[in-house]
Every structure is written in C-alpha cells, then in structure tokens.
Design brief:
888 residues; alpha/beta; Jelly Rolls; Pectate Lyase C-like; 23-stranded parallel sheet; eight-stranded antiparallel sheet; 14 helices
C-alpha cells in the first residue's frame, strides 16, 4: 500500500469510493471491537503487499516481512514497507501484543503522511501496549522505529458506536442537516468538539473534516423508512455485540452484522473457540408481567442450544435465565435454568424462522413461550429480568444465527397456567468453583519470585493471580499448603508454564527426565492445588509422591504438553482426591512415548501391606470428573512392580483406585504425537505437541517453517493418506533424527511398533504384580478409540467393579479375564476388533455386555461431549461433562 498522493483528483476519487461504501454499510455493523490473532495466519515470507481480514501488511523484495507464529517485522519500517496498515473510523484504542529483542525497541503509529501519533516500547518477551487514537478517522500504519519486532495479536476498540458516518446529529438519518453542521464547523460558526461527532463528520475518512465531507453527505443522504412500530414498546434497549468467553482471541470471525435488506442481525461465527453474542439490556424489571417478542433463524439444526435467552437474577442475586432453544432430541423447547427442557413437538429445521413471544409473570414465577403457534409454560426462579441475549456456539462454527431486535413491553393480558401437558427432560448441571475466589485469607502472587517466597511459609495459602513462567520446580513439602489459581471473570484459569525451568540441569532433548524435572511436586500431607493450567514441565505436570503422602486435593486443573504423565501418584502416596482434571497430549519424547499416561496412579500408590478392611478402604486414590485424551501412553495406568524392584520394606501396593464420571480416548498413538490425526481431520498443526517441539529444536527454521506451511495448507499430501505414508512424508520433508532411549531414530523408526513405547489403552487396571485383594471401582466411565483395549487388566488378577460403563471403537472393549467382578451392571459396548475378554463373575454377579438399540445416538453424544471438553481446555476453562446423565 503506497502513500496516497494528495492531488484533488485522488481525493475526490477516494471520496466517491468511500461514499459508496458508507451508503452500503450505514448501520451495517455493531461490532465495537475487532481482534486479529497473527499466530493463526499462514506462515509465509512477504515480498509485496499482502491483504487479509481488513489489514494490509506492506513489504517489498528488499524489505520483506515474514509471518510465522506472528507478524515478524524484520527491521525498521515506514508507511510504504514493513508496516501493518488498517483503517480507523474514529477515536479508538489499538492494543498490540509484541516483543522485540534484548534492548528496548519501539512500535510507531502513524498516518499516511508518516506523521507519528505515538510509540510503544517492546521488550524481549511478549507484552501488550496500547495506542490511543483521538483523530476523526483515517488510514493508519504500525511499524518498527528500528530493529525487528514480532506482533502476535492486535485489537481495535471503539469507545462508542452511537454516531454512524455522516449522521453528525445522531438522529438516525444522513441528510442536509448533517451537512449544515459540517459547513458551520469548517467556517468557524459552530465548532464541533465532541470526538464521536467529529468522526461522523469525517464522512470520507481522510483524517480531516472539510467541505468534501459536506458534499459527500449531500450526495449520499439516507433516511430510514417510516414505521408505525416503536422499537421497544416503551422499554429502551442498550445493545452490545461481542463474543464469549471474552478472554480468548477469536480464531475466526465472531461478530454481529446488521442486514439492512431484512432489518435484522446476523450473529456471524466462523470461530471454533468462542461464540458470537448480542445482548439487548434494559432497566431491571422486578414485578408484574412483561412481554418479549421477536424472531430467530438458526442456520443449523442442533441440539441443546439456548439461542434466545432472557437474563435475570434469582432471590439470592445469582444469574439465571430461561430461553428459546432446543432439547437433546432437537425439538424447539423452553430451556430453564434448572436444566429442564419443556418441549414442543416442533423439530428444529435449519434456516427456519421461529417467531417467539415470552410472557413473563415475575410475581407468579412463571413464563409462557409461544413459538410458531406452539405454546409451553414453565416455572422460573428469576425474581427480576434485565436483558435478552442471543448466542451462537463455541463447539460448532457453522451454527450462525439471524435474529430480530427484540421488542420488550410492560404488561400482558395473558394468564399463565402451568398445567399444559409437555414433555420434559432433565440433565445434570454441575458448577465448578472457578468463577469466584476470595483471596482475603492468603497471599496474592503475580510472578515466580513471589510464588517461590510464599512457598517458604508453612500452612501458606497462595493465590495465583495471572500466568506465571516458572523458573524452578514448585514443591509443596511442608504440608497443609494451598496453591489456588484465581480465574478471570470468564472462568479462564491462570497458567503455570514450566518451559524454561532449570530442573535438574539435564538436557531432556538427549536424556531421560526424573523427579527433579517435575513441574509441581507434592511430597507432604493435606495440600490443596486448584484452578491452574500446568504445561511444558520437563517431567510430570503434577506429581504426588512419598510414604504417607496423603490427604491431598487436586481440583479444576488442566495438565498438558508435559514431558511425562500429566499427573502421577506414586511411591507410597495414597488417599488423595483428584477432581475435574483435564490431562491431554502429554508425551515423554526421549522414552518414545512410554510412561506418559494421562494419569499414572502406579508404582506403589498405596500404603504398607494392609491388615484390616478399614485400612484397605482408606488406601484409595479417587478420580472424579477427570478426562484423559491423546497422551502418548495409557489414559490411566496403575502398574505395580514386583517386590524385588520396590524400594520399600515392607512393600507398598496400589490397592484401591476409584474412578467416577471419567472419560478417556485416543491414548497411546505414535502418529498422533507427530500431528497425523489433526492433519487428516483438516486442522492446523498443534505446535505444542512435545515431539513437534523437539523436532523444531533439531531442524533449521527454514525447514521447520516450510513444514508448518505445507501442513496447514494441506500440501503434505492427501488428507486421507495412511499414517505410514504421512510419517515417511515427514521423514522426506524434515530429514531429522530424534534422540531417544533406543538411539537416534528417523521419524518412521521412532513411531514403529518395535520402538514406540506408548500403550494404546484407556483404563489400565494393574500388572501381573498387582495384589489379588486390590480393587478397581469404575462408575460412569467411558473409553473409546484405543487400538489395544478400552478397559485392560494388563495381567492383573484383582477385583473389579464396573457400574454404568461404556466402551466402543477399541481393540478389546473389555480385556478383563483373570480379574473377579464384584459388581458388573449396565456395562455397554460395541464396535471392536477383538471379542470381549470378560472377568470371572463374583458371587451373585451376572457378567455381560449390552448393546442398546440407540447405540449410534449415544456414540454421537459422547463424541460431541469430548469435542466440548477439548474446546473448554483450549480456552483454559474447565467444566464437568454432563454426558453421563444422558447415557446412564
């Protein structure tokens, strides 16, 4: 994009083009903020200007710009080269996340003439800075004042959207009255001082208000059609468009667009990590009857989607809602806050308009919903209401929504009766303790130094307020200490990143890791760890280890991309409680995937030899609402060594494990750790996969960047290629040898069955050395997509209890012969490559596996639930899955 020449002809041409654009887009968007995530842009080197997503990156053959996990401005820039060009239409804040080098470097904001509006200093690590643009609108440029700077993201936020271009007096019209105000301003008769009015007066967006703007306004007058209806029937609405959760950077579009031809609003959503939202708020109404009308047109027929919600509060001030949406069977329904669906007999149809009317009786605590002539009623807990909220969906980027602006009217003649015969469906809704944390009883920490200091205090209660890069291992050795993350307002958890920890000083690229490389290590009793993301540890993410290490609680955490198991309980630790933990894509690279289970509760995870029933019951480790997927070894493993290999006298054994509401899938696959699964599913490369990170360190940046580009653009080969073809393609493309415990290996040899150490099992229940009195209790547990076994004995001869369990698409679904079933009820399974190998029936126990008639629906629901868990984890949020109540 070259600097505009300021000839009259050019300016007039620009006015004409902008005038046409303004006429077409008058009132066209109510988006107040736009964000660009440059880490998602296709890797490439630019030698000329490149336009994408309403930005232009300027470059020349001599002044190139590279895009690779960000926009890399390789040196000083100007308006004509090495800059990011965009248009601002009025006063706004421009936020940039960027890093420079070891010395301070500056980003410049300038206009098309090169006049600077501000500078931001950058450091050696990523940080966010802001430019405050106070002008009336023009083309702007961001570039480096000197040396290279990398930008990972950028956002542009307007303080208001009250005035549209040309509508200087904000009366909803563009006409001669607006032109008159502009002329008075430029002639000095009546100066415009309001920033938003000035931006509206700058109709052609050239940075100045002059006669050209007045001419353009007169040439493009706009008067909306008269209507006999008022928009809100006496209740004023405050409209805000956005997306949820607000703490993420959308990986696509999430916006609300006004459609002038139909006078409604499109919630446009191409993002996979957030939803487009539109909120119409009004003054709180706490009594009487309220009528709310409008329509909604969903673009997809989906289940359990509350797309038109009435928001309010209950008697305790808690946020509640009732909504127009769909139930699990895709019927149009009244969705209530207690998880109940009051359903109509209307099946949702894609692109069908649903005209709705809510009649709310706040005094009676009831609501009547009429949709396309069908009426249902229900009781509500809302004592007041304050907004109508439309929303797309995080887990499905094709689920767009077109809606009218709602009409809110006080009063109604309708008498609501709640005796209408309807079908209802109740699901279990579990809330987590991650939204509100009171830090008054402890110490708040915001960096590693403060965290390390706080750990020196016995009984310390430490609140982690933000993401922290950890320089050393975090160790809870004093007992009764707590480390609790404080989520933001959207439930986003703080991250403890161990990528650059010193550990035990070993080069883990070329050697095995050990306890000194664990991220967070617990070696004492009665500690609490909650609400944290733990990633990139050089060994386990969390380890609980030691004789009599008991009574610890780990809750609401995400464990990912660690160089061994996400969590390990071992070495005499027992009676520990683990709840609502997501453990995924952990991999021990040097040992070729072995050991890195999602959860490793093994190698003497129990007390000395028990002598009583009470000791036995107190020896258990419990897992509730825990999920393990795509780790390099088993989902769960409880392997024990023989006496000869134990370091305890007397011996210790993993006696009792309890798993409740747990799911695992896709563990133990070598090609997955090299990106194969994502490639064939059309996804971009997960560059955080431990093996991929190791390869990046071993090859040149040019080779790696070329590989990433080919991967993300689908140029490695067919998306339907076999895993062996994919691996050989990587060998050819990368020419890398990976150091391992079995020598330096090519990618194909690294993943071969003779070398790969990962075991593709879901729940592995022991080993040949597991004591026969040991117990494994599994309630509401699901395992799928494991090429070895969903539930695996691994030669153990222990007792098992399976209640409400499901296994499908595994090698063996149930590989349990030699164990004894003390309970075996409602055990389901289908689709396997090897016939079930079932346990011996205990006294009074019938051992059988059933295949229900609706198995395909169940499988679809389970896979949808797993996709939802993945989406939450990517957004650094955790919620227990509600899938179990649908099946069991």
């Amino acid at each position: 994009m070259k600097r505009l020449k300021k000839s009259v002809a050019t300016v007039l041409a620009f006015v004409m083009v902008w005038s046409l654009m303004s006429l077409q887009s008058f009132g066209a968007t109510i988006t107040k903020s736009t964000t660009w995530n440059f880490t998602k842009w296709t890797a490439q080197t630019l030698t000329n200007d490149y336009s994408y997503d309403n930005l232009t990156v300027t470059a020349t053959s001599a002044k190139t710009v590279s895009i690779n996990s960000g926009i890399n401005l390789g040196g000083g820039g100007a308006v004509d080269y090495r800059s990011i060009a965009f248009t601002a239409t009025g006063p706004c804040t421009i936020s940039v996340n960027a890093k420079g080098g070891s010395t301070t470097r500056y980003l410049v904001l300038a206009n098309s003439n090169g006049a600077e509006y501000g500078r931001i200093a950058t450091g050696s690590s990523y940080g966010t800075g802001t430019f405050n643009y106070t002008g009336v609108g023009e083309n702007l440029y961001i570039y480096s004042a000197g040396s290279g700077i990398t930008l990972s993201s950028m956002s542009l936020t307007y303080s208001t959207t009250a005035h549209k271009k040309g509508d200087v007096n904000n009366d909803g019209k563009v006409d001669k009255a607006d032109a008159a105000i502009v002329l008075k301003h430029i002639n000095g008769v009546s100066t415009i001082t309001d920033a938003d009015q000035l931006a509206a007066a700058n109709y052609n967006n050239d940075g100045v208000v002059n006669a050209l703007d007045a001419v353009a306004i007169l040439n493009n007058q706009y008067v909306p059609e008269e209507t006999t209806e008022t928009t809100t029937e006496g209740v004023a609405l405050d409209t805000v468009a956005g997306y949820e959760p607000s703490g993420v950077t959308p990986d696509g579009v999430a916006e609300v667009v006004y459609q002038s031809d139909t006078d409604d609003y499109l919630l446009k959503d191409t993002s996979t990590n957030c939803s487009a939202t539109w909120k119409n708020s009004f003054d709180t109404i706490s009594s009487g009857k309220v009528t709310i009308t409008g329509y909604a047109t969903p673009s997809k027929a989906s289940s359990k989607w509350a797309f038109a919600r009435v928001l309010g509060n209950d008697s305790d001030g808690n946020s509640v809602y009732f909504a127009l949406g769909t139930d699990a069977d895709k019927n149009i329904s009244l969705c209530l806050s207690d998880g109940t669906y009051v359903s109509t007999d209307l099946a949702i149809t894609a692109n069908q308009k649903y005209t709705y009317e809510f009649v709310v009786d706040l005094d009676m605590g009831a609501v009547q919903l009429t949709v396309n002539g069908k009426t249902v009623t229900g009781s509500i807990t809302a004592k007041s209401i304050n907004a109508i909220y439309n929303v797309t969906a995080v887990s499905d980027n094709a689920r767009n929504l077109t809606v009218s602006k709602p009409v809110v009217k006080l009063g109604s003649d309708v008498v609501i009766t709640t005796t209408t015969e309807t079908t209802t469906e109740t699901t279990t809704t579990t809330t987590t303790e991650t939204t509100t944390v009171n830090t008054a009883d402890g110490v708040e920490v915001k960096d590693y130094s403060s965290l390390a200091t706080a750990l020196n205090t016995a009984n310390a209660k430490i609140y982690v307020m933000n993401d922290i890069d950890c320089e050393e291992q975090i160790k809870l050795s004093k007992g009764e200490q707590s480390i609790i993350g404080v989520p933001d307002e959207n439930g986003v958890l703080p991250v403890l990143n161990f990528e650059n920890m010193v550990g035990k000083g070993t080069d883990i690229i070329n050697a095995s890791s050990s306890d000194g490389d664990v991220g967070l290590r617990i070696t004492s009793k009665d500690n609490v760890v909650r609400n944290l993301v733990i990633e990139f540890a050089h060994d386990n993410g969390i380890q609980i280890k030691g004789s009599e290490v008991t009574g610890n609680e780990v809750k609401n955490c995400i464990l990912r991309y660690n160089n061994d198991s996400g969590m390990q309980i071992t070495g005499g630790a027992y009676n520990n409680a683990v709840e609502n933990i997501y453990s995924y894509r952990n991999c021990d690279v040097y040992t070729l995937g072995s050991n890195a289970d999602g959860f490793a509760v093994k190698l003497s995870a129990g007390p000395e030899e028990v002598t009583s029933a009470s000791e036995f019951q107190n020896s258990k480790n419990t897992f509730v609402n825990c999920y393990s997927w795509e780790n390099s070894d088993d989902g769960w493993d409880s392997f024990d060594y023989p006496s000869s290999k134990q370091n305890f006298n007397p011996n210790r054994w993993t006696y009792k494990n309890v798993y409740e509401n747990c799911i695992c899938w896709g563990n133990g696959s070598a090609p997955l750790q090299l990106g194969y699964t994502d490639y064939v599913n059309g996804k971009t490369l997960d560059e955080n996969l431990p093996v991929i990170r190791r390869i990046k360190a071993l090859v040149s940046s040019d080779v790696y960047n070329s590989f990433v580009s080919d991967y993300n653009n689908g140029n490695l080969g067919s998306r339907t290629m076999s895993s062996s073809t994919y691996l050989s393609t990587l060998d050819s493309k990368l020419s890398v040898s990976i150091p391992s415990s079995k020598g330096t290996l090519s990618i194909t040899n690294y993943c071969s069955s003779s070398n790969w150490g990962g075991n593709p099992n879901g729940f592995k229940l022991g080993s040949a050395y597991t004591q026969s009195i040991s117990e494994r209790t599994l309630v509401n547990c699901i395992s799928f997509d494991h090429t070895s076994a969903g539930f695996d004995k691994n030669n153990a001869k222990c007792n098992v209890e399976l209640k409400n369990c499901l296994s499908f698409d595994n090698g063996y679904n149930y590989h349990l012969s030699g164990t004894t079933a003390k309970a075996f009820s409602n055990v389901l399974g289908w689709n396997y490559s090897k016939s079930d190998d079932l346990p011996t029936a205990g006294s009074g126990v019938a051992v059988k596996v059933s295949k229900p008639s609706n198995y395909s629906t169940i499988e679809t629901n389970v896979r949808n639930a797993s996709d939802e868990l993945v989406s939450w984890a990517k957004n650094n949020t955790v919620n227990p899955s509600g899938i179990f109540s649908q099946i069991f």
